[in-house]
Amino acid sequence: MLLKTFGWSFAVTALGLVAAVFYGGWEALGIVAILCVLEISLSFDNAVVNAGILKKMSAFWQKIFLTIGVLIAVFGMRLVFPVVIVAISAKIGPIDAVDLALNDKDQYQQLVTDAHPSIAAFGGMFLLMIFLDFIFEDRDIQWLRWIERPLSKLGKVDMLSVCIALIVLLITSFTFATHAHQHGGAHVDKAQTVLISGIAGLITYMVVGGLSGYFEDKLEEEEEREHEEEEEAARTGKQRPAVVLAGQAAFFMFLYLEVLDASFSFDGVIGAFAITNDIVLMALGLGVGAMYVRSLTVYLVRQGTLDDYVYLEHGAHYAIGALAVILMVTIQYQINEVITGLVGVVLIAWSFWSSVRRNRALAAAEGKAQGSDEKTEVSSGV
């Protein structure tokens, strides 16, 4: 099971490390290994959240997520995305941007760094909306009840998460502009960029998440209707629309997963520049790490880990909220990637331990109940 799920990741790791040695020797191999660990540590919470969505999809779409989705994640976000950012920010063609990345790595790194405020604003708002919608939802199972119980009541207010996200964005852009003005006003226009990028991230979340949720609801309604009218549907041939609808639902959920992965990858791509500005090594290291995140997602789904450890999804969403705040803060201040990775790991580890304690308590309570029933049967027999 483990080899079947992680087999491709192991193979890609071997190829990536060999390619690194041929490209830049043993030093390049070390850099690729470090980048791989960085990507996994920063994106572990991504795997948990992805698993919660992927478990609703068929085996076919899970394979699509591991094949086409990996191509988008590895080549799209880790290789093409930084080049596109440079091309847009520097107002040059894609070919010139690639040439810059290969031949003038310092200038390439500077251009990507200059584009960081807009990247962080877009990704931060997208992730913040995921966290807010989760925390404001009324759930049967609550982890940190002293936080989640009152917030779930507040969540009954329409559009509350959107209002809070916009307030955070306004405060962030205003703070950025004020800070820039105090330092000569050289980057006042960046505040507008942050505002526009953040709104774009919010709109992207609402469109993609809204369509995904809409088709998921329609799919559930269709499945329920077919269950009730199964014989009639078989005679009249009304099963075909359900197949089409299922495809639409799965497609938009897949699209939502890819946008989610893109938002998670922002900090990894930016953080990688603290280790190297070589685009080839970045693509190798982050790409190998992305493969493990994908495989870990499928492993969590197939093992039913989220069902066994019910607080894991909570911990992952709290990590998402922390990452969203960190991304918004990094618009103005630099935060070490080690801190970013540790915050997510600590929250998920805490939620896992809480799940283990919960399972033990339930097992102990069930054992006591069975013991009580056995005593009752014995006394009744006597």
UniProtKB/TrEMBL annotation:
> What keyword terms does UniProt attach to this protein?
Membrane, Transmembrane, Transmembrane helix
Query: Carries keyword Iron?
Result: no
Instruction: Give the source species.
Output: Streptomyces asoensis
Q: Which domain of life is it from?
A: Bacteria
**Which residues are listed as membrane-spanning?**
7-26, 32-53, 65-90, 118-136, 157-181, 193-215, 241-257, 269-294, 315-333, 339-356
Q: Under which name does UniProt file this protein?
A: DUF475 domain-containing protein
Q: Name one Pfam family in it.
A: DUF475
